[in-house]
Amino acid sequence: MNNSRGVSLLEIVIAAFILAIAFIPILRMVDFGSVATAKVGHYAKATRLAQELIEECKHVPFKVYQRHYSALASGDSFTVHPQFYKETAKSIEAFFEENKDTMKDYGCNANLKAKKNDLEQIVEVWFEVEIFWREMGKKDDERFGRRIVRAGNSYYNAEAM
């Protein structure tokens, strides 16, 4: 009688199959983690860019806005002209360019609106920025996969009473 203590080929194939099935959830978890990390990175970068845009606009003298937007005192909302955030506009374009393989339907909207005091003087200008995109591979339905970052801040007119 031959007492062989070796492992048959069939046992090795079954063990390899069981290990392969056990590793599928682990590999999917790693893939999900990398996708989630990329999404969080996009949100963080877009938020930083929105804040940079507002800060760059706040460094423009208040009188320049009053000259450029003649109806600023009306209380209406106006689109901020890119001349007021040239450097940040370049950074936003670079952000979308470096992520063009993972993003589509992207863009940036920046608006400003004046607030007046009781004397009808403009006391501050509110900036509102929205950076948006959709992830590649998502359905064409606008509600599905759309990512939006919004930021806002005010610019106080020190010359108002």
Q: How does this model look, in words?
A:
Helix content is 43%, strand content 26%. It is rod-shaped. The chain has helices at 9-58, 62-68, 86-98, and strands at residues 77-79, 103-116, 122-135, 146-156. The protein has one domain (9-156). The chain has three helices and four strands, in the order H-H-E-H-E-E-E. The mean pLDDT is 87. The N and C termini lie far apart (108 Å). By secondary structure, the protein is an alpha+beta fold.
Estimate percent helicity.
40-55%
User: What is the total domain count?
Assistant: 1
Main β-sheet, in a few words?
Answer: 4 strands, antiparallel
Tell me the distance between the termini: 108 Å
The strand order across the widest sheet is 1-2-3-4
Strand portion: 25-35%
Overall pLDDT confidence: 87
Protein traits:
single chain, 161 residues, alpha+beta, four-stranded antiparallel β-sheet, 3 helices, 4 strands, 26% strand
